[in-house]
Structures are given as structure tokens and as C-alpha cells.
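Students often ask what a holo structure prediction actually looks like on paper. The answer is less mysterious than it sounds. You provide the chain, you provide the ligand, and the output is a string of C-alpha cells encoding the 3D arrangement of the protein together with thiamine diphosphate.
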Amino acid sequence: MRISTKFAPRKADDGKPLTCTTDTDLKREQLLDLYRYLKLTRLVEERLVNLYRQTKVVGGVFRSLGQEATAVGTAYALGQQDFITPLIRDLGAVLVKGIRPRDVFAQYMAKAWGPSGGRDLNIHFGDMERGFIGPISHLGDMIPVMTGILLGARMQNKSIVGVAYIGDGGMSTGAFHEGLNFAAVQRLPLIIVAEYNHYAYSTPTSLQTACRDLAEKAVGYGIPATIVDGNDVVACYEVMKQAADFARRGGGAVLIEAKTYRRKGHAEHDDQRYVADGEIEWWEKNNDPIDRFERYLLDQKVANQEKLDEITAGVIREIDEDCDWAESSPMPQPEEAAYRVFDNEIVPPSLRPKVLEN
Ligand SMILES: Cc1ncc(C[n+]2csc(CCOP(=O)(O)OP(=O)(O)O)c2C)c(N)n1
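The corresponding C-alpha cells follow.
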């Protein structure tokens, strides 16, 4: 792999709407699986917004609206043994890794049956079996964490790759630099997915970095980089497959820059007053990753509209069931807050059976 800054998405207003790359070996079932994950991500998030408006969510809701293809496509190219550390905006990667919507709902509502038992929120939880490292921070700290995981895996002769997602804002931090520099020097199989989604909270990327493309930063670490259309789910899959092969063969760290767009604010409370008029609408109309993939599936005759509707209906059923389950979960007992946060498994007798059994 080498640095390519040739990214130039065709304007949708030339009369031809954007679709996805046809250069892929993905089979029909896999393409439909990708579609299911895209819809699942979007509809789980929509349900979370409903719950938020009903004041059932504790904390904020962080959407990936308009950029779902980056997380879904890249994670789909990984093996079960590979590790990811996603941002709050990479719910799609978490779902592809096998986390169920019910866990996400229960976690967002801080319920006792959620993965952290109400001790933490949104996707701040992990699942080591599935290679999902819960983020401790959005802002670069997970790069050294993943680097450490990969160093440990090398010492144990395990053949895994690790993917760390990062935003254009998070790339400005010292933790990002130190972690990636160390991974590059050690030639660890670290794959950075840099999400150029135009904003870090309210800061536009032009005020975040003097580089035109985030991929240019790879030069400073001596690692290869490539730019992918982050709203083309097939391209995201293909680029990750290539990067993972490269890293697994001992090539070292790789940086993938995904060009995409954050259509919602930083979280649901953010009214996006800093965004130019018409910008969000332009992306919604011309460059929505799900619209593009639907067009692709129909044009390529991978599926007809009935098949896509059937998949969507299945996703809605799953969300309804999982959301009911999460809503029926009790809130945690107050005393539980003191346990299993640090390495303190000593649980008072009154809490023992319930806490230790789940
Ligand atoms: C030390 C610290 N400062 C500020 C924040 C609040 N914060 C969380 S994410 C974020 C912006 C991140 O932007 P970017 O890295 O571009 O990712 P995006 O949200 O666009 O996915 C900010 C300011 C924080 N979590 N930690």
C-alpha cells in the first residue's frame, strides 16, 4: 500500500447519482448482510433517539447518521480474532462484531441487565471474546491502548490485527501521536481508520489541521496510507481487507482515511448552528451511504425492492424485541455502583447471587 491522495468523489449533480464500487468479490449473501448491518445501525440509533426524547436514556445519544458505511464496511472485513476499538460514532462496527442491540439499548438506559450493569453508558463497554475493546475516550487514548494489545499479542505469537477508529479532532492529540509512532516503529499490525467527517464537535476540519487530507499525516510516521470514500460500504470493506492482509503479513501499521460527513450534531443536544445552510441537506440528498448501497444492490440485481424491505422488516422486529427486553430490565441497585468498577470483586452478601450470576 502507498499514500494515495487521489480521492475525488464524483459530484452527484452531474446527473448520475452516486452508487458503490462494483470491484468486489463479496458474494450476494455478504452484500445483503452488509445491508442488514447498515439498516440495523441506522434504526438502532433512531430508536435510541426516541428513547432519549422519552427521557429514558441516561446521558447523550451520539449518532453516526450519514457515516454508517465506514464503520460497517471496515469491521466486516475483519476476522473474529481481530480487535477493534471504536468511537462512539462507530456503532456499526460494534454490531458487526456481534454485540446485540439489546445490550446497546440497556447500556444507553443504564439498566442492570446492560453489559456494564448501569455503571457506564453508550458504547463504553467491551467484549474481549468478540475483540471489542470499549473506548475509554474518543480523543486518541485508544491508539496507545490498541498498540499495547498488539504488542502483547505479538509476544504471545497471536496473529491478530487491531483497528482503532479516530476522528479528525482526535488526531490532533498527543496520545494519538505517541501511540501511532510506537506502533509504526514496532511495525505492529495497527490499522487506523481516520474518519474525516468534517467536524470535531463544532470545529471544522480546516481549523483542526493544516493538512488537506488526514492521510498526509502518515508520512510523519513512515507508514502507508490510503483514502477511501467512507460512504461507499463496499469500498470500505475492500480497503480494510487489503490493509488487514498487509498488516497481518508483517507490513506494520496502516492509516485509512475515510471521507464522510456527520449529518447530526456531536450528540442529540447539539443544534449544529455552526453548519452552513444547505450543507446537511446536500449530503442527505446526494451522498447518503444507505441510499447509495440500495441503488447498487438494485442496479446490480443483487436484490429487488421486496428483498430489501424484507430485510428491513426483520431488523425492525429485532429492534422491537431487544428494546422491549432492555426496557423491562430493572435499574441497578444503588449499592452495586461500588463494585466491579475497579478490581474489587468482593461483593456484599446481599448482592452476591445476582451480581455474580450475570
Ligand atoms: C479531553 C476531552 N476533551 C473534550 C472532550 C469532548 N469531546 C468528545 S469527542 C469531541 C470531538 C471529537 O471530534 P472528532 O475526533 O473529529 O470525532 P467525531 O466526533 O467527529 O467522530 C470532543 C470535543 C472529551 N471527551 N475529552
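The chain has eleven helices and seven strands.
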